[in-house]
Amino acid sequence: MSHSSELVVEPIPISLVSDRYLVYDIDVVTHLRRTHHICGVLLGGIPQAPQQNVFQGLPLELLPEEAKLLVEKEAAYIVDDIAWHEDFYTTLRGAERQKYLGSLRAQGLKAKQTANANARQRTEKALSRQAVLRASKSSASSREPSGDDPSVVVPAESSDAFNQGEPDALDNTVSESLFDRDGPVSPALSETSVRPSSKASDSVEPLAITPSTSYSPSSLPENPTQQADPLVPSSYALFAHLHARKYFMMPGLRFGCDYNVYPGDPLRFHSHFLATSYEWNEPIAMLDLVGGGRLGTGVKKGFLIGGQDLDSNSEGDGVQTFVLEWAGM
Amino acid sequence: MAPSAIISQHAPLSAAQESINISKSALKESPHPDYLHHLATSILHNLQYQHSWTSLTIHTHSSMDSAPLPRPMISGLPPRRAYIHPDEQAAIIKAEHDRGEMIEQKPEREWVLPSHIKEKWTLNGFASVFRTISVVPPGDSGSNEEDEEDVEESPVGDQWQGENRQKRLLLATLDGDSTVTYYIMHGGIVKPRQN
User: Where exactly are the transmembrane stretches of this chain (chain A) (predicted)?
Assistant: First the structure.
C-alpha cells in the first residue's frame, strides 16, 4: 500500500464531467484519502450487479468543495473531460493512434488469456468430477442386476441416460459444462469475441474490452494554463476551516446537515459533528438550533454551526464555530 | 398596568409575575428593551424553580469592560455540574479507578443566554455574546472557604475547569407555553460527550 502514493504525481487531474468532479484512478483515490484526507464518494456500480450498490466502485466523485480545496493547494487541477476527449481523439493519428490501438489490443489479449485459462481449469475440474461420478455409477449398476431379475440386464449406458433425466443427478456438472468453454464473456461482446465453441478453446483472439478510462493519465495535459475554479456553495469557508484542522468531511445528507465531520478517516472513526454553515448575518431559526442540537446529541455527535466573518480583521480565515449539545435539562 | 392591577385585587401574584414586578425598578436605567428583561426573568424563574439553580444573577453589562451585553444574561450555579468534557470524564474515571474512590464533582457557575423560540439569531449575534462574556461568570462560585486548605495542587480535570475551560454558555430557549429547553453552546470546536 505504501507504494501507491509514490505512483501518484501531483498535481492530479480531476475530470469534470457534466458538473461532477470525478477521479478514475484507484491510486489517486487512496492518495487523496491518505495524504489530503479527502474522501469523496465512490459512485461506480458493479457492471454485473448494478443493484448491489452497497459496494460502489470507481469513479470517485469529489464534492465541489473538495475539488476547489485540492486546486487551491495546487495538488490537483481540473480537466474538462468532454473538451479534452474530443481534442485527444480528433488529433490522434499515425504512430500515436497505432500505439493506442496496440495497447487496447494487448489489454484485450491479456483478458482473453486469463479467461481461457480459467475456462480450461473449470473444464478439467468438471470432467474429473464427471469421471468419478461415472465410475461409481457403473460399479453400482453392474452390481444391481445380480440382485434383481437376472434376465433383465440394464446396460450401464442406458442407466446413465436415465440418471441424466433426474434433476439432481448431474445438475452441477451439466450446468458448469454449459459455460466452461467461453469463460465469462458478456453478451454484448459476443459478435467479436464469441466464436463457435469448437474453436474457442484455443482461441487467442483478444476480447473487446471497455477501458475504465479512455486514455492513460499520462496523456493528460501536464500543466493546464486555464485553471477552472470549481463553483462551490457558501459553506466552503467552513469546509476549509475544518479541513485545515485535520478533520475529514463527508456529505451530510443523512443527518440533515452540510457535512458530517470525522476526527480521522471515516473508516476508523465515528463522526464528531454535524456541521451546518451559515452566512455571518444570515438569520438562524431557533428551532433549527434546537432540532440540530437534539438530533446531534441523539446520535452522540455535536451540532456544529459556523461561518465566515467577511469583515473580520483578525488573522486567519475569519471563520467562527459554535458547537451545540443538549444540556440534559 | 391595568391588567396586573386587576389580577392583584382578585388573586395573589404568581411567582413569575412577582419576579417581573421586582425587576421593574431595574428596567428604568437599563440599556435593553423591557421584553428582553422579561425573557431573562422567565428563564431565571425556570432555572430557580424547575432546575434548582442557585446564586442566580441577571447581568446587563460585561464584567470585563462594563460595556452593555447584547442582552441581559443570567449566571448561576446548577445543582450538579452542567457539563463535563469527554477527556475530563476519561481522566476522572481513570483517577477514580486508581484511587479506588469516587471523586466529588463540584458544580461550576454557568452563563445562560435567554432566547425565545420565535427569534432569529445570527452567527454574528452569538459571536458578539461570546466576545463580551468572561470564561467563568463573576459571582458566588459555591465553594466554601473552609474547603480551601485541602484543595489539591492540581485536581483531576483541572485543565477543563474554571478559567481553563473553553468559553461556553447554556442557550435557553423559551416557548409560548413557558417550556424552556437548554443547550450547551461552546465557542469553538469541542468534541462531543460520550453520552
Answer: none
Nearest-neighbour CA in chain A from B18: distance (Å): 24
Residue type (1 letter), B125? G
Contacts of A280 in chain B (CB under 8 A): 122-124
Instruction: Just give the CATH number of A233-329.
Output: 3.40.1350.10
Q: B83 to chain A: which residues are within 8 Å by CB? A: 325, 327
pLDDT digits (tens, 9 = 90+) for B78-110: 999 999 999 999 999 999 999 988 888 889 999
Q: Is residue A66 a contact partner of residue A46, using CB atoms and an 8 Å limit?
A: no
Per-residue pLDDT of B134-177, as tens digits, reads 999 988 776 554 444 445 556 777 888 888 889 999 999 999 99
What are the boundaries of each domain within chain A?
1-45+54-91, 100-200, 233-329
Interchain CB distance below 8 Å, B122 and A284 = yes
**CA angle centred on A239, ends A237 and A244, rounded to 5°:** 95
Cβ contact, residue pair A327, B122, below 8 Å: no
- Mean pLDDT for chain A? 78
At residue B30 the predicted structure's pLDDT band, cuts being 50, 70 and 90, is: confident
Q: Is A301 a catalytic residue?
A: yes
Alpha-carbon distance A303 to B170, whole Å?
14
**Closest among A327, A317, A267, A264 to A296, alpha carbons compared:** A327
Least CA distance to B50: which residue of chain A? A329
Before A59, cis peptide (omega within 30)?
yes
Q: Is B191 on the interface with A (CB under 8 A)?
A: yes
Alpha carbons A238 and A307: distance in angstroms, whole number:
6
Backbone angles phi, psi at B74, to 5 degrees: -110, 145
A215 classed as catalytic: no
Q: Do B190 and A281 touch (CB under 8 A)?
A: no
User: Fold match between A1-45+54-91 and A233-329?
Assistant: no
Per residue in A283-328, pLDDT (tens digit) is 999 999 999 999 999 999 999 999 999 887 777 889 999 999 999 8
Mutate one of A312, A322, A324, A326 to test the B interface: name it (highest B CB count within 10 A).
Answer: A322
| Predicted local confidence at residue A195, as pLDDT | 43
Per-residue confidence (pLDDT) for residue A35, from 0 to 100: 92
Domain A1-45+54-91 sits in CATH 3.30.1890: no
Nearest to A286 among B119, B123, B195 (CB): B119
For residue A290, what is the nearest residue in chain B, using CA coordinates?
Answer: B183
Domain spans of chain B, in order of start: 50-141+157-195
Least Cα distance to A216 among A3, A43, A13 occurs for: A13
Q: Please check the confidence at residue A162 and state whether its pLDDT lies above 60.
A: no
pLDDT tens-digit map of B120-138: 999 999 999 999 999 999 8
Task: Tell me how far CA of residue A278 lies from CA of A25, A196, A302, B121, B192, in angstroms.
Answer: 35, 66, 16, 11, 21
